[in-house]
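agent: user wants the structure for Ig-like domain-containing protein from Xiphophorus couchianus. delegating to structure tool.
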Amino acid sequence: MRESLAGADSWTLWDIANRKEESVTVTQQPAAVRAGLGGSATINCRTSQNVYGSNRLAWYQQKDGQTPHLLFYYVGSRVSGTPNRFNDGGSNSDFTLTISGVQAEDAAVYYCQSFHVISSQYVFTQ
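agent: tool returned. relaying tokens verbatim.
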């Protein structure tokens, strides 16, 4: 069973107002997670700057051949339809996504996306 994610990434924040790149990185670890059926899997996401409001971090799931599907839009804010076996946590710059009771259908790529206010501008990871 596989739960992979975008490994060792340095993502660029794009300042939508000034069209200026900011030096903020988002790193997800580990690059791949193995979990047996019914087991648990945890993915970590770290940002080099604190996210806005300490909790503005979203998690997405992307299955093969499909577009990304939003699981959580803020920490603790589950999207309707996200199974209860998925839980997120963390604050400021360190976050986790945990799957408890892994099912075969959970095999996917998982992404975190953060939101920041830098120099009075709104910026999102891409």
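agent: one observation worth passing along. The chain has a mean pLDDT of 84.
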